[in-house]
Protein backbone atom coordinates (compact mmCIF):
# COMPACT_ATOMS: atom_id res chain seq x y z
CA UNK A 1 0.00 0.00 0.00
CA UNK A 2 1.29 3.48 -0.84
CA UNK A 3 2.40 5.78 1.94
CA UNK A 4 2.49 9.54 2.33
CA UNK A 5 6.02 10.73 3.03
CA UNK A 6 6.60 11.49 6.72
CA UNK A 7 9.25 13.40 8.60
CA UNK A 8 10.76 10.72 10.85
CA UNK A 9 13.42 10.79 13.59
CA UNK A 10 15.34 7.71 14.63
CA UNK A 11 17.14 7.90 17.97
CA UNK A 12 20.26 5.70 17.87
CA UNK A 13 22.61 5.02 14.95
CA UNK A 14 23.55 1.53 16.21
CA UNK A 15 22.98 -1.59 14.15
CA UNK A 16 19.20 -1.42 14.43
CA UNK A 17 18.78 2.35 14.00
CA UNK A 18 20.98 2.50 10.90
CA UNK A 19 19.25 -0.46 9.21
CA UNK A 20 15.81 0.98 10.02
CA UNK A 21 16.95 4.30 8.48
CA UNK A 22 17.79 2.50 5.20
CA UNK A 23 14.42 0.74 5.16
CA UNK A 24 12.36 3.87 5.86
CA UNK A 25 14.34 6.07 3.47
CA UNK A 26 13.74 3.57 0.68
CA UNK A 27 10.02 3.77 1.46
CA UNK A 28 10.18 7.50 0.64
CA UNK A 29 10.32 9.14 4.07
CA UNK A 30 12.58 11.96 5.28
CA UNK A 31 14.87 10.50 7.92
CA UNK A 32 17.06 12.12 10.58
CA UNK A 33 19.09 9.89 12.90
CA UNK A 34 20.31 11.24 16.26
CA UNK A 35 23.14 9.69 18.22
CA UNK A 36 24.83 10.82 21.39
CA UNK A 37 28.10 9.27 20.16
CA UNK A 38 30.46 10.82 17.63
CA UNK A 39 30.40 9.40 14.08
CA UNK A 40 32.08 5.98 14.46
CA UNK A 41 33.48 6.33 10.94
CA UNK A 42 35.78 9.13 12.13
CA UNK A 43 36.96 7.49 15.31
CA UNK A 44 40.41 6.01 15.11
CA UNK A 45 40.28 2.22 15.30
CA UNK A 46 40.95 1.25 18.91
CA UNK A 47 42.67 -1.99 17.95
CA UNK A 48 39.89 -4.02 19.52
CA UNK A 49 37.51 -5.72 17.19
CA UNK A 50 34.25 -6.84 18.73
CA UNK A 51 32.30 -9.30 16.66
CA UNK A 52 28.86 -10.81 16.52
CA UNK A 53 27.26 -13.87 15.01
CA UNK A 54 24.79 -13.17 12.22
CA UNK A 55 22.32 -15.89 11.34
CA UNK A 56 19.31 -16.40 9.06
CA UNK A 57 17.06 -13.71 10.50
CA UNK A 58 19.75 -11.05 10.21
CA UNK A 59 20.60 -12.05 6.65
CA UNK A 60 16.95 -12.04 5.62
CA UNK A 61 16.60 -8.45 6.82
CA UNK A 62 19.76 -7.32 5.03
CA UNK A 63 18.72 -9.14 1.83
CA UNK A 64 15.43 -7.21 1.81
CA UNK A 65 17.36 -3.98 1.12
CA UNK A 66 19.90 -5.70 -1.13
CA UNK A 67 22.97 -5.46 1.12
CA UNK A 68 23.36 -9.12 2.12
CA UNK A 69 26.06 -9.96 -0.46
CA UNK A 70 28.08 -6.85 0.30
CA UNK A 71 28.06 -7.61 4.04
CA UNK A 72 28.91 -11.29 3.48
CA UNK A 73 32.20 -10.14 1.93
CA UNK A 74 33.27 -8.85 5.36
CA UNK A 75 32.02 -11.86 7.35
CA UNK A 76 33.43 -15.35 8.02
CA UNK A 77 31.15 -18.43 7.93
CA UNK A 78 31.40 -20.73 10.94
CA UNK A 79 29.89 -24.14 10.19
CA UNK A 80 30.86 -25.85 13.44
CA UNK A 81 31.72 -25.50 17.09
CA UNK A 82 35.29 -26.32 18.13
CA UNK A 83 35.09 -27.74 21.64
CA UNK A 84 38.17 -27.26 23.81
CA UNK A 85 37.29 -29.59 26.68
CA UNK A 86 39.80 -30.14 29.52
CA UNK A 87 41.97 -33.29 29.09
CA UNK A 88 40.62 -34.10 25.62
CA UNK A 89 41.85 -33.16 22.17
CA UNK A 90 39.80 -30.48 20.37
CA UNK A 91 36.70 -31.91 18.73
CA UNK A 92 34.25 -30.38 16.30
CA UNK A 93 30.44 -30.33 16.24
CA UNK A 94 28.72 -29.42 12.97
CA UNK A 95 26.10 -26.75 13.51
CA UNK A 96 23.40 -27.92 11.19
CA UNK A 97 22.94 -29.44 7.80
CA UNK A 98 25.46 -29.08 4.98
CA UNK A 99 25.83 -25.43 4.03
CA UNK A 100 24.37 -24.08 7.28
CA UNK A 101 26.59 -21.65 9.13
CA UNK A 102 26.53 -18.65 11.42
CA UNK A 103 28.70 -15.73 10.34
CA UNK A 104 31.25 -13.85 12.40
CA UNK A 105 31.24 -10.15 11.62
CA UNK A 106 32.83 -7.10 13.19
CA UNK A 107 30.24 -4.93 14.92
CA UNK A 108 32.12 -1.75 14.02
CA UNK A 109 32.66 -2.62 10.36
CA UNK A 110 29.01 -3.57 9.96
CA UNK A 111 27.77 -0.41 11.69
CA UNK A 112 30.04 1.86 9.63
CA UNK A 113 28.93 0.18 6.40
CA UNK A 114 25.27 0.62 7.26
CA UNK A 115 25.71 4.30 8.16
CA UNK A 116 27.49 4.76 4.80
CA UNK A 117 24.63 3.04 2.95
CA UNK A 118 22.00 5.07 4.83
CA UNK A 119 23.82 8.32 4.04
CA UNK A 120 24.12 7.35 0.35
CA UNK A 121 20.36 6.78 0.37
CA UNK A 122 19.86 10.34 1.69
CA UNK A 123 19.48 9.85 5.45
CA UNK A 124 20.71 12.76 7.62
CA UNK A 125 22.80 11.85 10.68
CA UNK A 126 23.21 14.15 13.68
CA UNK A 127 26.04 12.76 15.78
CA UNK A 128 27.15 14.05 19.20
CA UNK A 129 23.54 14.96 19.89
CA UNK A 130 22.05 13.30 22.92
CA UNK A 131 18.29 13.08 23.27
CA UNK A 132 17.23 13.95 26.81
CA UNK A 133 13.50 14.06 26.50
CA UNK A 134 10.66 13.10 24.18
CA UNK A 135 7.14 14.50 24.16
CA UNK A 136 5.27 11.38 23.09
CA UNK A 137 1.89 12.76 21.86
CA UNK A 138 3.62 15.54 19.91
CA UNK A 139 6.52 13.41 18.56
CA UNK A 140 8.92 16.12 19.72
CA UNK A 141 12.42 15.46 20.94
CA UNK A 142 14.89 17.55 22.90
CA UNK A 143 18.66 17.39 22.62
CA UNK A 144 21.44 19.20 24.45
CA UNK A 145 24.86 19.00 26.04
CA UNK A 146 23.64 18.26 29.56
CA UNK A 147 20.43 17.29 31.29
CA UNK A 148 20.21 20.59 33.08
CA UNK A 149 21.55 22.78 30.26
CA UNK A 150 19.78 24.35 27.31
CA UNK A 151 17.94 22.01 24.94
CA UNK A 152 17.11 22.22 21.24
CA UNK A 153 13.60 21.14 20.27
CA UNK A 154 12.80 19.16 17.09
CA UNK A 155 9.36 18.26 15.84
CA UNK A 156 8.58 15.14 13.81
CA UNK A 157 5.63 13.10 12.56
CA UNK A 158 7.02 9.86 14.01
CA UNK A 159 9.91 8.96 16.35
CA UNK A 160 11.60 5.56 16.55
CA UNK A 161 13.53 4.70 19.70
CA UNK A 162 16.49 2.55 18.63
CA UNK A 163 18.56 3.73 21.57
CA UNK A 164 19.46 0.39 23.08
CA UNK A 165 18.86 -1.48 26.34
CA UNK A 166 18.89 1.67 28.49
CA UNK A 167 16.66 3.63 26.13
CA UNK A 168 15.73 7.19 26.93
CA UNK A 169 12.61 6.93 24.77
CA UNK A 170 11.43 3.88 26.71
CA UNK A 171 12.24 5.67 29.95
CA UNK A 172 9.75 8.32 28.93
CA UNK A 173 7.11 5.69 28.03
CA UNK A 174 7.68 4.00 31.42
CA UNK A 175 6.24 6.97 33.20
CA UNK A 176 2.85 6.37 31.64
CA UNK A 177 0.17 4.35 33.32
CA UNK A 178 -0.12 0.61 32.48
CA UNK A 179 3.37 0.33 31.05
CA UNK A 180 4.95 -3.02 31.99
CA UNK A 181 8.66 -3.10 32.61
CA UNK A 182 11.17 -5.54 34.07
CA UNK A 183 14.94 -5.73 34.16
CA UNK A 184 17.01 -8.67 35.41
CA UNK A 185 20.78 -8.80 35.59
CA UNK A 186 22.50 -12.18 35.72
CA UNK A 187 25.33 -12.78 38.20
CA UNK A 188 27.77 -13.49 35.37
CA UNK A 189 29.72 -10.74 33.61
CA UNK A 190 31.85 -10.72 30.46
CA UNK A 191 35.14 -9.35 29.29
CA UNK A 192 36.38 -9.12 25.73
CA UNK A 193 39.94 -10.37 25.06
CA UNK A 194 41.82 -10.93 21.83
CA UNK A 195 44.14 -13.39 20.13
CA UNK A 196 46.21 -11.60 17.49
CA UNK A 197 46.90 -13.02 14.02
CA UNK A 198 50.03 -15.01 13.15
CA UNK A 199 52.82 -12.90 11.70
CA UNK A 200 51.77 -13.85 8.17
CA UNK A 201 48.20 -12.70 8.89
CA UNK A 202 46.70 -16.17 9.21
CA UNK A 203 44.47 -17.31 12.08
CA UNK A 204 45.98 -19.13 15.06
CA UNK A 205 42.94 -21.39 15.48
CA UNK A 206 40.60 -22.92 12.89
CA UNK A 207 38.96 -19.90 11.33
CA UNK A 208 35.67 -21.51 10.34
CA UNK A 209 34.78 -22.58 13.86
CA UNK A 210 33.09 -20.99 16.83
CA UNK A 211 35.56 -21.89 19.59
CA UNK A 212 34.28 -22.78 23.06
CA UNK A 213 36.20 -23.63 26.22
CA UNK A 214 33.41 -24.74 28.60
CA UNK A 215 34.58 -24.79 32.21
CA UNK A 216 31.41 -25.24 34.26
CA UNK A 217 30.77 -21.94 36.02
CA UNK A 218 32.70 -19.99 33.44
CA UNK A 219 33.60 -20.26 29.76
CA UNK A 220 35.66 -18.67 27.06
CA UNK A 221 34.49 -18.32 23.46
CA UNK A 222 36.33 -17.04 20.38
CA UNK A 223 35.16 -15.87 16.96
CA UNK A 224 37.45 -15.02 14.02
CA UNK A 225 37.98 -11.61 12.41
CA UNK A 226 38.94 -11.08 8.78
CA UNK A 227 42.34 -9.62 9.81
CA UNK A 228 43.44 -13.01 11.24
CA UNK A 229 42.73 -12.19 14.87
CA UNK A 230 40.09 -13.68 17.16
CA UNK A 231 37.84 -11.82 19.54
CA UNK A 232 37.37 -13.87 22.71
CA UNK A 233 34.73 -13.35 25.36
CA UNK A 234 35.27 -14.60 28.88
CA UNK A 235 31.99 -15.19 30.71
CA UNK A 236 32.49 -15.59 34.46
CA UNK A 237 30.66 -14.86 37.75
CA UNK A 238 31.30 -11.42 39.23
CA UNK A 239 31.90 -12.94 42.66
CA UNK A 240 32.97 -16.32 44.11
CA UNK A 241 35.89 -18.79 44.07
CA UNK A 242 36.77 -18.34 40.42
CA UNK A 243 35.39 -14.96 39.43
CA UNK A 244 36.28 -11.52 38.14
CA UNK A 245 36.60 -10.49 41.77
CA UNK A 246 39.07 -13.31 42.53
CA UNK A 247 41.53 -12.20 39.82
CA UNK A 248 43.20 -9.01 40.99
CA UNK A 249 46.85 -9.31 39.95
CA UNK A 250 48.72 -10.16 36.72
CA UNK A 251 50.06 -13.32 38.39
CA UNK A 252 46.56 -14.44 39.30
CA UNK A 253 45.39 -13.81 35.74
CA UNK A 254 48.34 -15.76 34.28
CA UNK A 255 47.66 -18.66 36.63
CA UNK A 256 44.00 -18.60 35.68
CA UNK A 257 44.70 -18.86 31.94
CA UNK A 258 47.45 -21.46 32.45
CA UNK A 259 45.24 -23.64 34.62
CA UNK A 260 42.03 -23.52 32.67
CA UNK A 261 43.01 -22.78 29.09
CA UNK A 262 46.27 -24.66 28.47
CA UNK A 263 45.91 -24.66 24.69
CA UNK A 264 46.02 -20.87 24.50
CA UNK A 265 49.25 -20.82 26.54
CA UNK A 266 51.16 -18.84 23.91
CA UNK A 267 48.57 -16.07 24.10
CA UNK A 268 48.69 -15.69 27.85
CA UNK A 269 50.73 -12.46 27.90
CA UNK A 270 48.25 -10.89 25.55
CA UNK A 271 45.18 -12.25 27.33
CA UNK A 272 46.53 -11.10 30.69
CA UNK A 273 47.10 -7.60 29.37
CA UNK A 274 43.60 -7.45 27.88
CA UNK A 275 42.17 -8.75 31.12
CA UNK A 276 43.23 -5.60 32.96
CA UNK A 277 42.79 -3.15 30.08
CA UNK A 278 39.27 -4.13 29.09
CA UNK A 279 36.17 -3.50 31.16
CA UNK A 280 34.01 -6.16 32.80
CA UNK A 281 30.44 -5.72 31.63
CA UNK A 282 27.07 -6.88 32.93
CA UNK A 283 24.28 -8.65 31.05
CA UNK A 284 20.60 -7.91 31.38
CA UNK A 285 17.23 -9.18 30.21
CA UNK A 286 14.84 -6.27 29.76
CA UNK A 287 11.18 -6.68 28.89
CA UNK A 288 8.53 -4.04 28.42
CA UNK A 289 5.13 -3.43 26.87
CA UNK A 290 3.61 -1.66 24.99
CA UNK A 291 6.35 -0.85 22.53
CA UNK A 292 4.47 1.92 20.75
CA UNK A 293 2.61 5.10 21.55
CA UNK A 294 -0.38 5.88 19.31
CA UNK A 295 0.87 6.44 15.75
CA UNK A 296 3.73 8.59 17.05
CA UNK A 297 6.48 6.58 18.73
CA UNK A 298 7.80 3.01 18.46
CA UNK A 299 10.65 1.08 20.09
CA UNK A 300 12.74 -1.24 17.89
CA UNK A 301 15.65 -3.53 18.81
CA UNK A 302 17.27 -3.62 22.26
CA UNK A 303 15.20 -0.66 23.47
CA UNK A 304 12.14 -2.94 23.29
CA UNK A 305 13.75 -6.25 24.27
CA UNK A 306 17.28 -6.72 25.58
CA UNK A 307 18.36 -10.33 26.05
CA UNK A 308 21.40 -12.16 27.40
CA UNK A 309 23.73 -13.10 24.52
CA UNK A 310 23.83 -16.89 24.90
CA UNK A 311 21.93 -17.60 21.68
CA UNK A 312 23.67 -14.88 19.64
CA UNK A 313 20.29 -13.42 18.66
CA UNK A 314 19.98 -9.84 20.01
CA UNK A 315 20.90 -8.07 16.78
CA UNK A 316 19.21 -10.76 14.68
CA UNK A 317 15.97 -10.21 16.62
CA UNK A 318 16.27 -6.42 16.20
CA UNK A 319 16.79 -6.81 12.45
CA UNK A 320 13.76 -9.12 12.30
CA UNK A 321 11.68 -6.40 14.05
CA UNK A 322 12.48 -4.13 11.09
CA UNK A 323 11.57 -6.82 8.56
CA UNK A 324 8.19 -7.33 10.26
CA UNK A 325 7.61 -3.58 10.58
CA UNK A 326 8.04 -3.25 6.82
CA UNK A 327 5.51 -6.04 6.21
CA UNK A 328 3.01 -4.11 8.34
CA UNK A 329 3.76 -0.84 6.53
CA UNK A 330 3.10 -2.59 3.21
CA UNK A 331 -0.16 -3.93 4.60
CA UNK A 332 -1.56 -0.78 6.25
CA UNK A 333 0.06 2.10 4.33
CA UNK A 334 -0.72 5.43 6.00
CA UNK A 335 -2.50 3.90 8.97
CA UNK A 336 0.52 4.02 11.30
CA UNK A 337 -1.58 3.17 14.33
CA UNK A 338 -2.53 -0.17 12.71
CA UNK A 339 1.11 -0.68 11.62
CA UNK A 340 2.36 -0.18 15.18
CA UNK A 341 -0.40 -2.22 16.80
CA UNK A 342 0.18 -5.31 14.68
CA UNK A 343 3.96 -4.89 14.83
CA UNK A 344 4.05 -4.98 18.63
CA UNK A 345 1.41 -7.71 18.93
CA UNK A 346 3.32 -9.97 16.58
CA UNK A 347 6.80 -9.26 17.90
CA UNK A 348 6.24 -9.22 21.67
CA UNK A 349 5.63 -13.01 22.10
CA UNK A 350 8.63 -13.69 19.88
CA UNK A 351 10.86 -11.31 21.83
CA UNK A 352 9.76 -12.97 25.08
CA UNK A 353 10.47 -16.40 23.56
CA UNK A 354 14.03 -15.57 22.50
CA UNK A 355 14.63 -13.94 25.90
CA UNK A 356 13.55 -17.18 27.57
CA UNK A 357 15.58 -19.39 25.21
CA UNK A 358 18.67 -17.22 25.72
CA UNK A 359 18.30 -17.32 29.49
CA UNK A 360 17.82 -21.11 29.44
CA UNK A 361 20.98 -21.48 27.38
CA UNK A 362 22.83 -19.51 30.02
CA UNK A 363 21.51 -21.82 32.78
CA UNK A 364 22.32 -24.87 30.65
CA UNK A 365 25.87 -23.74 29.99
CA UNK A 366 26.59 -22.68 33.53
CA UNK A 367 24.99 -25.37 35.64
CA UNK A 368 23.82 -28.36 33.60
CA UNK A 369 26.83 -29.31 31.52
CA UNK A 370 28.24 -31.36 34.39
CA UNK A 371 24.94 -33.11 35.23
CA UNK A 372 25.09 -36.79 34.06
CA UNK A 373 21.31 -36.96 33.51
CA UNK A 374 21.44 -33.88 31.31
CA UNK A 375 24.40 -35.26 29.35
CA UNK A 376 22.55 -38.56 28.82
CA UNK A 377 19.52 -36.64 27.56
CA UNK A 378 21.67 -34.74 25.06
CA UNK A 379 23.23 -38.01 23.89
CA UNK A 380 19.80 -39.59 23.28
CA UNK A 381 18.52 -36.50 21.47
CA UNK A 382 21.58 -36.31 19.25
CA UNK A 383 21.36 -40.00 18.37
CA UNK A 384 17.65 -39.81 17.58
CA UNK A 385 18.11 -36.63 15.51
CA UNK A 386 20.80 -38.37 13.46
CA UNK A 387 18.31 -41.17 12.70
CA UNK A 388 15.34 -38.87 12.04
CA UNK A 389 16.63 -35.41 11.15
CA UNK A 390 13.18 -34.38 9.87
CA UNK A 391 11.45 -35.40 13.12
CA UNK A 392 13.82 -33.89 15.70
CA UNK A 393 15.02 -30.42 14.82
CA UNK A 394 16.94 -29.00 17.80
CA UNK A 395 15.75 -25.64 19.15
CA UNK A 396 19.15 -24.18 18.20
CA UNK A 397 18.54 -24.94 14.51
CA UNK A 398 14.99 -23.57 14.66
CA UNK A 399 16.29 -20.31 16.12
CA UNK A 400 19.45 -19.98 14.06
CA UNK A 401 18.83 -21.54 10.66
CA UNK A 402 15.16 -20.77 10.10
CA UNK A 403 12.95 -17.72 10.01
CA UNK A 404 10.01 -19.41 11.73
CA UNK A 405 8.81 -17.50 14.81
CA UNK A 406 10.95 -17.71 17.96
CA UNK A 407 7.77 -18.59 19.89
CA UNK A 408 7.43 -21.72 17.74
CA UNK A 409 11.03 -22.73 18.55
CA UNK A 410 10.29 -22.33 22.25
CA UNK A 411 7.04 -24.29 22.02
CA UNK A 412 8.61 -27.15 20.05
CA UNK A 413 11.56 -27.15 22.44
CA UNK A 414 9.19 -27.52 25.40
CA UNK A 415 7.37 -30.40 23.66
CA UNK A 416 10.70 -32.15 22.98
CA UNK A 417 11.72 -31.63 26.61
CA UNK A 418 8.49 -33.28 27.84
CA UNK A 419 9.15 -36.28 25.56
CA UNK A 420 12.70 -36.60 26.84
CA UNK A 421 11.58 -36.51 30.47
CA UNK A 422 9.36 -39.55 29.73
CA UNK A 423 12.21 -41.31 27.92
CA UNK A 424 14.56 -40.72 30.85
CA UNK A 425 12.09 -42.54 33.12
CA UNK A 426 12.57 -45.79 31.12
CA UNK A 427 14.29 -48.49 33.24
CA UNK A 428 18.05 -48.85 32.60
CA UNK A 429 17.94 -45.99 30.12
CA UNK A 430 21.67 -45.27 30.54
CA UNK A 431 22.53 -48.70 29.13
CA UNK A 432 20.18 -48.65 26.16
CA UNK A 433 20.18 -44.99 25.11
CA UNK A 434 20.96 -45.89 21.47
CA UNK A 435 18.62 -48.92 21.25
CA UNK A 436 15.71 -49.46 18.87
CA UNK A 437 13.44 -49.56 21.93
CA UNK A 438 14.28 -45.97 22.83
CA UNK A 439 13.93 -44.91 19.20
CA UNK A 440 10.45 -46.50 19.06
CA UNK A 441 9.47 -44.89 22.34
CA UNK A 442 10.37 -41.41 21.06
CA UNK A 443 8.56 -42.04 17.76
CA UNK A 444 5.44 -43.04 19.70
CA UNK A 445 5.56 -39.80 21.71
CA UNK A 446 6.11 -37.36 18.86
P1 LIG B 1 22.65 -0.46 20.46
O1 LIG B 1 23.65 -1.22 19.68
O2 LIG B 1 22.79 -0.40 21.94
O3 LIG B 1 22.63 1.03 19.87
C1 LIG B 1 21.97 2.08 20.52
C2 LIG B 1 22.45 3.40 19.96
O4 LIG B 1 21.68 4.45 20.53
C3 LIG B 1 23.91 3.72 20.29
O5 LIG B 1 24.57 4.14 19.13
C4 LIG B 1 23.81 4.81 21.34
O6 LIG B 1 24.92 5.70 21.30
C5 LIG B 1 22.53 5.51 20.94
N1 LIG B 1 21.86 6.21 22.05
C6 LIG B 1 21.54 5.69 23.26
N2 LIG B 1 20.90 6.60 24.01
C7 LIG B 1 20.83 7.74 23.26
C8 LIG B 1 20.28 9.02 23.49
N3 LIG B 1 19.69 9.36 24.64
N4 LIG B 1 20.36 9.95 22.50
C9 LIG B 1 20.96 9.63 21.32
N5 LIG B 1 21.49 8.42 21.05
C10 LIG B 1 21.42 7.49 22.00
N6 LIG B 1 23.49 -10.20 18.88
C11 LIG B 1 23.53 -11.08 17.84
O7 LIG B 1 22.62 -11.08 17.02
N7 LIG B 1 24.57 -11.95 17.69
C12 LIG B 1 25.60 -12.02 18.58
O8 LIG B 1 26.51 -12.84 18.43
C13 LIG B 1 25.57 -11.13 19.71
N8 LIG B 1 26.57 -11.18 20.63
C14 LIG B 1 26.52 -10.33 21.70
C15 LIG B 1 27.52 -10.42 22.68
C16 LIG B 1 27.49 -9.61 23.78
C17 LIG B 1 28.55 -9.75 24.83
C18 LIG B 1 26.43 -8.67 23.93
C19 LIG B 1 26.36 -7.77 25.12
C20 LIG B 1 25.44 -8.56 22.97
C21 LIG B 1 25.46 -9.40 21.84
N9 LIG B 1 24.46 -9.33 20.86
C22 LIG B 1 24.48 -10.21 19.81
C23 LIG B 1 23.35 -8.37 20.97
C24 LIG B 1 23.56 -7.12 20.12
O9 LIG B 1 24.79 -6.53 20.44
C25 LIG B 1 22.43 -6.12 20.37
O10 LIG B 1 21.19 -6.78 20.30
C26 LIG B 1 22.45 -5.00 19.32
O11 LIG B 1 23.66 -4.31 19.36
C27 LIG B 1 21.29 -4.04 19.56
O12 LIG B 1 21.35 -3.00 18.65
P2 LIG B 1 20.55 -1.65 18.88
O13 LIG B 1 20.87 -0.82 17.69
O14 LIG B 1 19.13 -1.97 19.23
O15 LIG B 1 21.17 -1.01 20.20
Automatic annotation (TrEMBL):
Output the Pfam families linked to this UniProt entry.
FAD_binding_3
Q: Catalyzes what?
A: L-kynurenine + NADPH + O2 + H(+) = 3-hydroxy-L-kynurenine + NADP(+) + H2O
- GO MF annotation terms: FAD binding; kynurenine 3-monooxygenase activity
Q: Is the keyword Flavoprotein in the record?
A: yes
Give the enzyme's EC designation: 1.14.13.9
> What is the required cofactor set for this protein?
FAD
So where does this one cross the membrane?
Answer: 7-24
Please name the GO terms of the biological process aspect recorded for this protein, alphabetically: anthranilate metabolic process; kynurenine metabolic process; L-tryptophan catabolic process; NAD+ biosynthetic process; quinolinate biosynthetic process
Q: Which family is it part of? A: Belongs to the aromatic-ring hydroxylase family. KMO subfamily.
Which protein are we looking at?
Answer: Kynurenine 3-monooxygenase
Q: Which gene encodes it?
A: kmo
